[in-house]
Amino acid sequence: MADPLIWSPLQIGPVTVRNRIVFSAHLTNYAEDGLPTEQHAAYYAARAAGGAGLIITEEHSTHPTDWPYEKLIHGFHPEVVPGYRRITEAVHRHRVPILAQINHNGGQAGSMYSRLPVWAPSPVADPLFREVPKAVTTAEIAEIVASYGLVAGHCAEGGFDGVELQCSHSSIVRGFLSPATNHRTDDYGGPLEHRARILLEIVAEVRRVIGPDLALGVRLCGDELIEGGTTIDEAVRVAQMVEATGQVDYINTSIGVATASLFMIEASMHIPPGYSMFIPSAIREAVDLPVVGVGRFKDPLQAERALSEGQCDLVGVVRGQIADPEFVAKARAGFTDDTRLCLSCNQECVGRMGLNRWLGCIENPATGRESLGVGSARPVRIGRRVLVVGAGPAGLQAAIAAARNGHHVTVVERSAQAGGQVRLAATVPNRAEFGDLVRNQLQECSRSGVVVEYGVEVTADEVRRRDPDTVVVATGSTPSRPWWAPPEADWIVDVRDVLEGRVQPTGTVVVLDELGFHHATSVAELLADRGCSVEVVTPGMVVGQDLGITLDLENWWIRAEAKGIRQSTELVPMGVDDHTVTFQHHPTGTERTRRPDWMVLAVPSSPADSLYHELRAEGVDVHRVGDALAPRRAHAAVIDGERVGASIPAASGVLVRG
Questions:
Q1: How far is CA 26 from each of CA 58, 322, 353, 401, rounded to the nearest angstrom?
Q2: Which residue, among 380, 385, 456, 396, has the nearest Cα to 644 in the 3D structure?
């Protein structure tokens, strides 16, 4: 990149950022009892050490009525200040500024944790929480405004370089700004100038508290993507009102509503990078304040293009830095090939949030465990000769972890390519980015000195010939034939048979979804694109039900409708007779039948673990990882590999901690 803007410094009010990459606010679920933790400090410090220009923390709640999820930082308690100081001191050691995002979620919450009525501008129930909120009085509005000032004061006392007001995808301020949720007729409802009143009052109060030496930002939603909601024209006008106060130093942007159109806020790989850049671009044309743009940026070239084209002044890169804390440093040094690219799979970041678990990453086992030293090198005095059988995600991660500690690692793979089922998953429509998992692991193996051999069928005799000190079996799994599918029914095949090209289904196809994830929906799309008439059948209540966790479900519905893919639920296969499949409708017990040309199975597989058992019987130091241990999803394979690879002791049996 010639004269890249991405590495140029920028002044944001009293704060100078040394580059244009922002680690924007996002939930982590690291809080304990409403307080920030050592894990927060370690997490943000790792991204500061990795070169981020600016860090903005997850939201800190401003009021006791706001408790939408369990592990929220309660910024209104003075007890948060010591934790704030640990976070800011850890980040400032790397000369990186850090801001605290403060927020009241308003009607986008429930009373389960607070046991108090939810506050909102109007009694409009949120589509996710489905709880009718209490319309706040003018006195309560004043209380809300004051609470923002209180928390801003705690942030200043805690050493933050400023605060950001979350007025975008989940906020009582957004609720006031939006005509879809603000039905008031007083001075805080009606025309936009009235709906924006609370925001301007909060801006004034927060600036009064923090003074001129700390930065103040406002994050706005440019398009709620809901009927009757805020659109870009009104968002631009609000940005102009904010700038006119003379008290705000930058504007951040967002798209969607967290409880109605979240799948567009934290978009998966089916949505193209930069998809929401029309929002910062429009706002930047209307204001002189620096504007932050977001929208699934995966690499620095995409960020530089947005900057050079004038769409924004800073770029928010969240998942890219979740996957690789050194995202910025590697890009700055020109080592872009070494960057662990985000997959936008949403499985361990967004998905874990939806399950009330701490934030992690499918390909980086250290994410969310930085304070415990996971992923750190613990060099051994004498390295072992480690043989890893299988170059899927589990085997490659085991090799990476073992080599990190100084072992001599060889990976053998029977096929001509690494990746196992991940490689297959990346061949279906709009899933190519999933293949970056293997690309990233192979790059790390190369840097670590791991030798990878292809086209090698490993038997017990081959292991004896190589005589390794330790063997890690990562041989994956094999398709299983359900009890009800007779072996002679060659028209009933596994998903892998289709993806590997062993069969070419035509005509009418029934895809059985017993896994509830991408397996069935992906092959259904592939076959529909090839001209097949496809129906997906599942015993569950929803086809691909776990796609809801990764925010892929809504877009699957849209694509399935467009491609004519039918979906049938609560049907349990019971048997096959003369090319006819009989199902039992679970709720009613009635029979349903299908007579397809082909049936494709997405069903649980079986571990390919015979080599492990043979070696174990011979007394070999052998371990299983990934599907060879228990068939699961890719994140479990990576965690298995990390755990086993990192636990291999020195050849002498003595670990020397590094």
A1: 5, 10, 10, 28
A2: 396
Flag residues of the chain having pLDDT under 70.
Answer: 1-2, 652-658
The Cβ of residue 78 has, within 10 Å, a number of other Cβ atoms equal to: 11
Q: What is the DSSP letter of 272?
A: P
Write phi, then psi, for 38 (nearest 5 degrees).
-60, -30
Determine the Cα–Cα distance for residues 77 and 58; give it in Å rounded to an integer: 16
Instruction: Return the closest-CA partner of residue 398 out of 640, 96, 118, 56.
Output: 640
For 496, the 3-state DSSP assignment is: helix
Give me 37's structure tokens. 């933790």
- pLDDT of 655 reads 37
Cβ atoms of 393 and 437 within 8 Å: the answer is: yes
Q: What is the pLDDT of residue 1?
A: 57
- The per-residue pLDDT for 594 is 98
Q: CA-CA distance, 453 to 395, in Å (whole number)?
A: 13
- Of 656, 639, 622, 645, residue with least CA distance to 404: 645
Q: Where are the domains of the chain?
A: 5-372, 385-479+607-647, 492-604
Contact 313, 306 (CB under 8 A): no
Q: What pLDDT was estimated at residue 405?
A: 96
Q: What CA–CA distance (Å, rounded) separates 315 from 14?
A: 19
CATH architecture label of 492-604? 3-Layer(bba) Sandwich (3.50)
- Topology (CATH) of 5-372: TIM Barrel (3.20.20)
What CATH number labels 385-479+607-647?
3.40.50.720
Which is nearest to 230 in space by CA: 288, 188, 279? 279
- Alpha-carbon gap, residue 71 to 62, rounded angstroms: 14
pLDDT for the residue 656: 33
> Smallest Cα–Cα separation from 54: which of 167, 210, 156, 162?
162
Topology agreement, domain 5-372 and domain 385-479+607-647:
no
Helix axes 232-244, 197-210, angle to 10 degrees: 40
d(CA 581, CA 54): 58
Give SS3 for 167.
strand
**Residue 657: what pLDDT?**
30
How far apart are the C-alpha atoms of 411 and 469, rounded to whole Å?
14
Contact 366, 324 (CB under 8 A): no
525 touches 567 (CB < 8 A): no
State the residue for tokens 């086809």.
543
Calpha distance 407→449 (Å, rounded): 10
Q: Which of 341, 336, 307, 345 is nearest to 321 (CA)?
A: 341
Each residue of 103-119: pLDDT tens digit?
999 999 999 999 999 99
Neighbours of 464 (CB within 10 A): 12
The pTM for the full model equals: 0.95
DSSP collapsed to 3 states, 67-110 = CCCCCCEECCCCCHHHHHHHHHHHHHCCCCCEEEEEECCCCCCC
- Residues across the chain: 658
